[in-house]
Amino acid sequence: MNTNSAVTDSNLNPQERKRILRILESNWQAEMRGHETYAALAERETDPQRRMAFRSLADAEQRHADLWAGRHSALGGSPLAYDGPRTGEADNLANRIGGINMALRRLELDETQDIAKYAKQIEDIGDQASIVILAQVLKDEREHYQVLNNLIRNRRPLPAFSPDQARKALDELLSARQAGSPKAAGWIGDAIYGINDGLGAIFGIVSGVSGATLGNSKVVVLAGMVGMIASALSMGSGAYLAAKSEREIYEAEYAREREAVQYNEPEAREVLSLSYQVRGLSEEDANRFVDQVARDKTQLVRALARERLSTTEEGLRKPWTSAISGALSTALGALIPIVPFFFLTGYPAVLVAAVVSLLAHFTVGAAKSLITIRSWWSSGLEMTFVGAIEGVVTYLIGIVIGRIGGAGI
After folding, report:
1. What's the pTM?
2. Domains of the chain listed by start with CATH number
3. Of 241 and 250, which is predicted with more confidence?
């Protein structure tokens, strides 16, 4: 259900009323347990700041319990009786290894679970009066999480970044990951690898067919053109599907992070803070940074998705741009070894095609340095060497096949 499907008391059927009463009683028990826990901790606490915070939290939990009890009674529920220990979870927390900070972290985790639970109930409970209470309780629980967060870290208010400063700092932090790794526009990468694929594949076909037919231009051109069309369609469709898949994966991750922020924002903020701490920020700076980003929930979701996938929506390739770039560049690369056979025949055509193709291999290899960290000459020579091996091997295979088949196709 969602808030739009909420019904009035008079429209509740017996089963729905019973279901809602069970939820209200569970919420009441949880809030009473929280009240008893914080009250016991306040009574035992010697630090004035923590004692005051625990008392405030205990009072808030009691107010929440009263709200749930009131709604439970309004729906005709029987009087509620607290079934937990009189000290709540305080005794269990006191026995934990790690002292008060470990106990506070346990309480902090409990608050995040309550936040997630109440956020889900807003969608599922189907009772408008209960939804109003949930909205108020959810707001308070988020404040409780922040109180515990501050107690754990003994934080005081710090000067805030401006939104522009926060966004700039985030961009600088994330771009540091890719330092030393130049990144060209997506379509440039598709174009370079398309030319590479077309040139390599069709050079192999041309060499093999030339060896089998002793350089018969008509057969070589026919085989090369068919291969060119097949390679271009294959590269274009592959680039389209790859770019589309990248976008779908990003959108799915974005939706998951948006749901995480909606249902359990404190946990989402903690995940983002820890990711910055791993990369070198102090805990204090990371938390302050996340506080600024989280002022805009959309920015918070984007930052989380960006951390998971190391990219942004703007950095994703456009499927049709990738498809067209990949297909056209593959066709261009494939055409290079075919062109000499339009004007020459026999061994001269084979030799010219080999020279032109190897020069093209070097040029494409050098161009790859635009999107890699290698030097242009090293990348070019490597590509030329690979192309030469490919041409010789396929040419020799073609000769063998041609002789087996009668050496005259």
Report:
1. 0.46
2. 3-153 (1.20.1260.10), 186-404 (no CATH)
3. 241
